[in-house]
Amino acid sequence: MTNKIIKGYSQKRPITLRANTLKTNIDYIKNFFNNLGFKYKEVSWYTDALIMEGISIDQIKNLEIYKNGEIYLQSLSSMIPPIILSPKENENILDMASAPGGKATQMLALSSNKAFITACEKNKIRAERLKYNINLQSANRINVMVKDSRTLDDFLSFDKILLDAPCSGSGTININDSKLEKYFTEDLVNRSTKIQFNLLKKAINLLRPGHEMVYSTCSILSKENEEILQYFINSNKVEIVPIDLSQFSNIDILPVNIDGTLCICPSDLYEGFFVAKLRKI
User: Fold this and answer.
1) Which residues pair with 108 in a beta bridge?
2) At what angle do helices 102-110 and 124-136 cross, to 10 degrees?
3) Are 172 and 223 in contact, with CB atoms under 8 Å apart?
4) For 14-71, how does the pLDDT look when each residue is reduced to its tens digit (9 = 90+)?
């Protein structure tokens, strides 16, 4: 398993994107690429996603469909948490660490532009990028709050919450980076876990009883994932809603310490990623 992870770290992944169905549809995007002679593969678990073949990022960014927000560049792994959360019409949804906005705009698209989304981002520069992407994609039912989600008032409540928590990035390591040992440290992991714990604590406070949230990270370390979840499970705050792994049957996954959660192995197509669905008791 270790060798498999290390091999995944060394892979160069192709460009992946999704059609922004707030503005267009996947058939239009496919036809656009077909007319240009661009090759792509479909994604079995998400009809709006494409894997581009032999295309550079500059080629994509020069296209009109990129410049006008009809497509959004996004890793396959990061498309999975919104799908598992399954946003619906008229739901009041919180995205706790939203920038640059890929998951927030995806959630709105998944709700057929009928959910209400609050997108939080504490960093002012990143929040501006978030607003830019939201406007470009015509995601006008997303309200941006330039605020640390941990300081949100507890009188607020939400039908669903996406907490894609800041993390060490252990699932996205570039093993060929000569500076890896400088920035990927035990201290980084420890600082990340403290932030994750407090964000999850706040998320549970803000989630309506009986409702569901998704916790995700781009880390494959149990310390940042299952160990944090287990504290709140043991405290009878939340329970696991098992993820249907059959829809992701063609993705290499890693063993997990909590049944019903998903840990994606780094590979030639996927970043290492952890996803769990929780229900507030």
Assistant:
1) none
2) 30
3) no
4) 999 999 999 999 999 999 999 999 999 999 999 999 999 999 999 999 999 999 999 9
Considering the domain delimited by 76-280, tell me its CATH architecture. Answer: 3-Layer(aba) Sandwich (3.40)
Domain ranges of the chain: 12-73, 76-280
Both tokens of 164, joined, read 């894609």
Task: Give the Cα separation of 249 and 171 in Å (integer).
Answer: 19
Residue 100 preceded by cis peptide, ω within 30: yes
Position 210, amino acid: G
Taking a C-beta distance cutoff of 8 angstroms, is the pair 163, 118 a contact? Answer: no
CA-nearest of 106, 39, 99, 56 to 77 is: 106
Look at the pTM and tell me if it is higher than 0.90.
yes
Residues 134, 247: Cα–Cα separation, whole Å: 29
Q: Show which residues are catalytic.
A: 218
Q: How far is CA 119 from CA 106, 142, 214, in A?
A: 12, 7, 15
CA distance 213 to 12: 32
Contacts of 106 (CB under 8 A, 6+ apart): 18, 72, 74, 79, 82
What class has domain 12-73? alpha beta
d(CA 101, CA 120): 10
